[in-house]
Amino acid sequence: MEYPSRKYGLSCRGIKRFSTTAAVVEQPITHPVEIKYTNLLINGQFVDSASGKTFPTLDPRTGEVMTHVSEGDAEDINRAVAAARKAFDQGSWPRMSAYERSCVMLRFADLVEKHSKELAQLETWDNGKSYEQALKSELSLVVRMFRYYAGWADKIHGLTVPADGPYHVQVFHEPIGVAGQIIPWNFPLLMFSWKVGPTLACGNIVVLKSAEQTPLTALYAAKLFHGVLLHLLYLVMVKLFMRFCCWSPGWRS
Predict the structure, then answer these.
(1) Could you say which of 9, 22, 29, 49 is the most buried, measured as most Cβ atoms within 10 Å of its Cβ?
(2) 82 in helix, strand or coil?
(3) Among residues of the chain, what percentage have pLDDT more than 90?
């Protein structure tokens, strides 16, 4: 009787590999996409952190440093929140009609679709997932999610509540202010759309902290958003975001 281990080249010490082809030298993968944005995005400008500190973001395949990204702290969060609060109190976004907000978000979705290959390449490089998954799964869902939330912008409305007596009871849904948001590393752009999309659709302003492991696509997407309309989205890369943001004035959510 021939044992399976012998039949398939296995032994109790492990798996033996057989090949009739010559060894192939692995060629390094080159990345055609350029890393353009590595600073904090505050008040419509990419700026260095107040401390000047940076941290490395690594290629998960090799462990090599891809680039260095500005590392924010409490002072940077306060700057971002103050600018976002001013944009909310004095800017146009909360005062736009819901239809106009919807149109802006649809234009952003079109830009993401236009730049989907660059975003997918950057996501693959920074996150380690396959390019096919990044392009065909994640990026296509990001575009769909923003178009979905854009469609909700003019469908969020109040209601009139029946009341006893000579009273008129009415409920309004209004923007509340500046929302602090955190996204993880596993699906950076998809999590970006889940957080940012509904918040902006409701007329609020966002201060976003992306994962320090995968900050690059959020910065790229935020730049695209600012190509449509300034002062909607602020990005601060902070390793202890929750500790710092709890003490920052101006938050509403």
Answers:
(1) 49
(2) helix
(3) 68
